[in-house]
């Protein structure tokens, strides 16, 4: 489905027209199917993260300041209003760096989309509106999968990380507003208001990654604020018109300032290929519990372990570790890790996760238990590691890991991309991840029912049935 072109139709209105007119039958079956598996992965991450220490800290603080409401807090026996519920449920999805990311315009779509969509559905039902069905939920999620990355591509995607912006939080407000607007079936001019209200709230500082708790919550700001924007627009509140292309104080002109690119931003990326090129094809799912930019490091180390098992049998013989990467990956994950380190800082550090892979042979949630973060064997390796920006490796995922040994031998491995990117996890592998990571976190019957409902979601009559399955206590995976 292509938007109508008109000399007076700017990209914001063009996007809104497409969002309003899109129907589930317009979406290829492969895209619809993939979206269901992506949704399942997002819920897996939420169930896994609900009772991690830093999430419980956020939950306890929010429960203390917010009154009860109608929206389920996943993994708890509590309900809040839609806005705090969206914020907290998003924090759960983002809690352990295991959730999806877009490989061209980095953002974690599920943490931005699933919480506000389900919160909006429960709020509407509590107000006496007809139940919103699974087909509408699926279509709205796909709208969000399309919108967020397109906003990011307008700003050169990962280049925003290089500049110090938390890219997903910056791109994500519009995605949440677009998705909720679609779920509420808002007219296209009201969708434009929602986008205008959402975009004026967008921000996110990448310095949050250096050990703060707030890194886990920043995508939740986009989820909450995008939901707020759509609900305000539904109530008649007027947002910024033409918010993306407005030359003075518009979203792209403002965030594109001093980008170092020519042109500073790419306005046409917002609507380029709408209904023909599906951005969900570029959403990837993680198999390692760490920031996406560290995954090539992990996979390169794993390949060296497979090729040289005898050489790596005694890690004390390693004299130095050199990790080379692109500029964005270097600024995101190549910083010098120092002891002591929080779980968040550890998950953001290429040096630290390389050590974890060398010692544990994996990088999974249990490897970041508080009692394991300060192991001498890890820090001996971290202290021998240096990270470098190597321009000839390009601007994407390519990395090189080189290990030098005390006997003078050197082994090296270069990868163009991590396995999570090329080829990426299949639908079957996502399902296996869901089953494996939720084992023991929720009862088997509950896990199986969530799986059944999500994979048949277009036939669900009331999407709040899904939230009912997400309610109730879940286990802490690192206890």
UniProtKB/TrEMBL annotation:
<dbReference type="GO" id="GO:0016829">
    <property type="term" value="F:lyase activity"/>
</dbReference>
<dbReference type="InterPro" id="IPR045337">
    <property type="entry name" value="MmgE_PrpD_C"/>
</dbReference>
<dbReference type="InterPro" id="IPR005656">
    <property type="entry name" value="MmgE_PrpD"/>
</dbReference>
<protein>
    <submittedName>
        <fullName>Uncharacterized protein</fullName>
    </submittedName>
</protein>
<dbReference type="InterPro" id="IPR042183">
    <property type="entry name" value="MmgE/PrpD_sf_1"/>
</dbReference>
<feature type="domain" description="MmgE/PrpD C-terminal">
    <location>
        <begin position="288"/>
        <end position="456"/>
    </location>
</feature>
<dbReference type="InterPro" id="IPR045336">
    <property type="entry name" value="MmgE_PrpD_N"/>
</dbReference>
<comment type="similarity">
    <text>Belongs to the PrpD family.</text>
</comment>
<dbReference type="Pfam" id="PF19305">
    <property type="entry name" value="MmgE_PrpD_C"/>
</dbReference>
<dbReference type="InterPro" id="IPR036148">
    <property type="entry name" value="MmgE/PrpD_sf"/>
</dbReference>
<feature type="domain" description="MmgE/PrpD N-terminal">
    <location>
        <begin position="14"/>
        <end position="258"/>
    </location>
</feature>
<dbReference type="Pfam" id="PF03972">
    <property type="entry name" value="MmgE_PrpD_N"/>
</dbReference>
């Amino acid at each position: 489905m292509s938007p109508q072109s008109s000399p007076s139709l700017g990209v914001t209105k063009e996007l809104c027209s497409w969002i309003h007119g899109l129907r589930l039958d317009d979406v290829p079956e492969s895209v619809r199917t993939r979206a269901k598996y992506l949704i399942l992965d997002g819920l897996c991450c939420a169930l896994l993260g609900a009772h991690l220490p830093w999430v419980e800290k956020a939950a306890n603080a929010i429960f203390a300041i917010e009154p009860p409401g109608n929206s389920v807090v996943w993994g708890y026996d509590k309900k809040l209003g839609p806005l705090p519920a969206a914020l907290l449920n998003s924090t759960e999805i983002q809690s352990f760096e295991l959730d999806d990311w877009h490989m061209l315009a980095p953002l974690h779509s599920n943490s931005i989309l699933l919480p506000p969509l389900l919160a909006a559905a429960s709020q509407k039902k509590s107000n006496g509106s007809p139940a919103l069905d699974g087909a509408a939920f699926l279509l709205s999620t796909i709208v969000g999968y399309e919108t967020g990355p397109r906003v990011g591509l307008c700003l050169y995607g990962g280049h925003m990380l290089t500049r110090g912006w938390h890219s997903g939080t910056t791109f994500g407000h519009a995605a949440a507003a677009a998705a909720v607007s679609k779920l509420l079936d808002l007219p296209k001019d009201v969708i434009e208001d929602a986008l205008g209200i959402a975009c004026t709230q967008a921000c996110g500082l990448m310095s949050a990654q250096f050990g703060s708790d707030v890194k886990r919550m920043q995508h939740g700001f986009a989820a909450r604020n995008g939901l707020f924007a759509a609900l305000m627009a539904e109530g008649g509140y007027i947002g910024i018109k033409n918010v993306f292309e407005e030359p003075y104080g518009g979203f792209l002109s403002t965030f594109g300032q001093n980008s170092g690119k020519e042109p500073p931003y790419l306005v046409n990326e917002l609507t380029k290929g709408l209904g023909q090129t599906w951005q969900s094809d570029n959403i990837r799912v993680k198999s390692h519990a760490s920031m996406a930019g560290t995954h090539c490091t992990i996979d390169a180390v794993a390949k060296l372990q497979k090729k040289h098992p005898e050489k790596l049998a005694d890690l004390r013989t390693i004299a130095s570790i050199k990790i080379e990467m692109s500029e964005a990956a270097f600024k995101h994950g190549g910083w010098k890790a120092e002891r002591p380190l929080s779980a968040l800082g550890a998950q953001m550090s290429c040096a630290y996760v390389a050590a974890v892979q060398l010692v544990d042979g994996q990088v999974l949630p249990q490897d970041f238990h508080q009692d394991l973060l300060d192991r001498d064997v890890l820090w001996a390796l971290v202290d021998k590691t240096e990270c470098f920006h190597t321009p000839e490796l390009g601007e994407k995922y390519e990395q090189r890991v080189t290990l030098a040994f005390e006997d003078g031998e050197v082994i090296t491995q270069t990868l163009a991309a991590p396995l999570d990117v090329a080829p990426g996890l299949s639908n079957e592998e996502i399902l296996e991840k869901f089953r494996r990571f939720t084992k023991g976190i929720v009862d088997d019957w509950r896990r199986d029912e969530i799986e059944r409902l999500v994979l048949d979601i277009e036939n669900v009559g009331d999407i709040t049935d899904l939230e009912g399955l997400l309610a109730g206590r879940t286990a802490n995976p690192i206890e």
